[in-house]
Amino acid sequence: MTIDKSLLAGSTALLVLKLLESGDKYGYQMVEELRRRSDQTFELKSGTLYPLLHSLEQKGYIEAWEEDVGTARPRRYYHLTDSGRRQLAEKEDEWRTYAGAMFRVLEGGA
Amino acid sequence: MTIDKSLLAGSTALLVLKLLESGDKYGYQMVEELRRRSDQTFELKSGTLYPLLHSLEQKGYIEAWEEDVGTARPRRYYHLTDSGRRQLAEKEDEWRTYAGAMFRVLEGGA
DNA sequence: ATATAATATATCGACCATCTACTTATGTCA
DNA sequence: TGACATAAGTAGATGGTCGATATATTATAT
Fold this sequence. Notes:
Two copies of one chain form a homodimer. Chain A is globular. By secondary structure, chain A is an alpha+beta fold. Chain A has five helices and three strands, in the order ααβααββα. In chain A, strands 1-3-2 form a three-stranded antiparallel beta sheet. Chain A has one domain (about 10-105): Arc Repressor Mutant, subunit A, CATH 1.10.10.10. The interface of A and B includes residues 39, 95, 98 and 100 of A. The structure holds a DNA duplex.
C-alpha cells in the first residue's frame, strides 16, 4: 500500500533523527534503511531529505563530516548531537501522543 | 502535550469522516467531539475544518442539509455517503499501515 | 561498445494542507 | 456593557513534500 504523502509530513524529522540514533549515516543510506525498516512503506525522496538534513544541521540537532572516498562524490555522514538526542526524545513522545489520540478516535473512544 | 500541526496533516479528512460514521454532525460539533474523543489532543481550527468540509462535499464523500434553528445562523449538518464510507475504510487502512511502519522504525525494527 | 541502472548529493518551483486572523451574527451570563 | 460560547465562513501566510532536473562515478547488461 502506498500511503499519502501528507501523512508523512511532520514525521520525517523524527524518522531521520531516529535513524541516526544507532550510528552516523549518510543521506542515501538513510533512504535505504528507512525503506527497509518500514517494509517499503516509507520512500523518502531526495528532494525531501537533503533540505531536511540541512535544516536539522542549522538547528544544531545533527553535525556533518565528510568521508573522502577517492574520486567519487564524498559521502556526507551525519552525527546526532546531544541537543538532537533531546529533540528526538521530545518528538518521539509527541508522536506517541498523536498516535494514541488517533487510536482513541478510530476505536470510537468515549 | 501540544502536538505539532504538521503531524495532523493528512489525518484530518480521516478524522472528520470517522466522526460522521456514528451519525450526522455539524462543523462546530465535530470540533468539540474531536477534542473530547482525543483527550484535548486534537484542536481542529475552523479555518481548517470548513474548507475541508466543502472539499469533502465536492468529492461526494459527504452531503449537507440545513437545520433552521430560529433566528441564529442555521446549522449545516453533514451526512456520510456510501462513497464516503468506502473512502473512510480506505483512509483508515492507510493510516494503520503508516502507524505500523512508524512503530517498526521507532522500535528499531530490523 | 553502449546503454542503463545504481550510487550519491543537491536545488528549484509547484502543490497541498494547515494555521492565524478576521468577519458576521445571536444568545447568555456577570 | 462586555465577554464568552455558539456557529459558519474567507483570505493570506507558512511550511513541508514532491517531481524534475543536474552532476558525477561505477557496475551491469545488451
